[in-house]
Amino acid sequence: MLAVLQEEWGSPENMRLTEVDRPKPTFGEVLVEVVAAGVNPVDFYTAQGSAYNRILELPFIHGWDVAGVVTEVGYGTTRFRPGDRVFGMPWFPRAAGAYAECVTAPARHFAQMPERSTFSEAAALPLAGLTAWQMLVDVARVGPGQRVLITAAAGGVGHLAVQIAKSLGAYVIGTASAAKHSFVRALGADEVVDYTTTDIAAVVGDVDVVIQMFGGDGAVGALRCLRRGGIMVNAQSAWTPGMAARAAELGVRASGFLVEPDYAGLAALAQLVDEGRLAVHIERELPLARAAEANQLVGRGHTTGKVVLTVADPVRLGATAAGAIR
User: Fold this and answer.
1) Rounded Cα–Cα distance for residues 115 and 120 (Å)
2) How far apart are CA 39 and CA 170, in angstroms?
3) In a 10 Å sphere around its CB, with 0-12 CB exposed, 13-18 middle and 19+ buried, how is residue 19 labelled?
4) Contacts of 148 (CB under 8 A, 6+ apart)
5) pTM > 0.90
6) How far apart are the C-alpha atoms of 46 and 164, rounded to whole Å?
7) What is the CATH number of domain 128-256?
8) In whole angstroms, what is the distance from residue 234 CA to residue 258 CA?
9) SS3 state at 228
10) Contact criterion met (CB below 8 Å) for 196 and 177
11) CB-hemisphere CA count at 13 Å for 1?
């Protein structure tokens, strides 16, 4: 099968499309023929060897986000059968090999695709959607009436976090550049602040939760937005030295975070999509052979929503955007 392989650390230009052995599912696993694969910032940084290189070993097949069709099930697998349309973020943070024509992973790393989603939309959802869901629901336990600040609200995780927080009944404040304010408001944000011209902590205060999508001094400064006892969930805590000490000084809480495979979370996201309360925005779709270009786009840090790689024709796999054909 074809796959995007990384054989040397460096820029995305070191990614190359090549033939590799087709995997076989073992006990409790499924084989998924990939229709589309999502592209995330972690993919870009992984190529450089500056993130997760203590877990991934060269050579490896890139990518984690995947949507496709189950074509084979391993012994003991009862969750799916051939023809099912699934999406997931298998194995994270270990290599999953999503930039390929096929992937294998435990069945519980996948969920049924939303009925209302195309394969590209479903492939764009798992890593960013689970990050937003787990930060808001599992860690911060956001509830009705709470004030939630979401940084980078127009980004891959941020634009989903805004919608999920609104579905939980929160009052949402998002940060974004001025050009993206209308986009963030259309997602449901109650307020939008321009982080490029404004000290966020000077104009936003008394929030219950900060969903922090970048590290460094800006993340430490955002702690001042919290009410006493509030919580920051920081997806980049490893790059935010001094966060815990500053939180203690202010009488607030700060939590690190790393997303995990979670079929229950995926099912919750699918339900929100099918209820019309969550929609993923795709800025660009590119074929698998242009994976390096897709990663360069994401690596610049200015995309609105997600970038997706298209891999296979769903009709060839006996599936349509509306459901599997059996």
Assistant:
1) 13
2) 28
3) exposed
4) 136, 140, 142, 165, 170, 171, 172, 173, 207, 208, 209, 210, 211
5) yes
6) 27
7) 3.40.50.720
8) 9
9) strand
10) yes
11) 23
- Superfamily assignment of 2-125+280-324 in CATH? Medium-chain alcohol dehydrogenases, catalytic domain (3.90.180.10)
Rounded Cα–Cα distance for residues 109 and 29 (Å): 9
Give the CA distances from residue 185 to residues 25, 174, 191, 195, 221, in Å, rounded to whole numbers and listed in that order: 44, 9, 7, 15, 24
User: How crowded is residue 275: how many other Cβ atoms within 10 Å of its Cβ?
Assistant: 11
Length of the chain: 326
| Domain map (residue ranges) of the chain | 2-125+280-324, 128-256
Task: Name the residue with tokens 């999920």.
Answer: 164
Q: How far apart are CA 210 and CA 87, in angstroms?
A: 28
The pLDDT of residue 53 is 57
Residue pair 311/34 in contact by the 8 Å Cβ criterion: yes
Sequence-distant (6+) residues with CB within 8 A of 196 are: 177, 178
Strand partners, 31: 72, 104
Q: What is the mean pLDDT of each run of 10 residues along the chain (326 residues)?
A: 94 92 97 98 87 77 97 96 97 96 98 97 98 98 98 96 98 97 98 95 97 93 97 92 96 96 98 98 97 94 92 72 36
Strand 282-287 to 15-19 pairing:
unpaired
Q: Are strands 60-61 and 66-73 parallel, antiparallel or unpaired?
A: unpaired
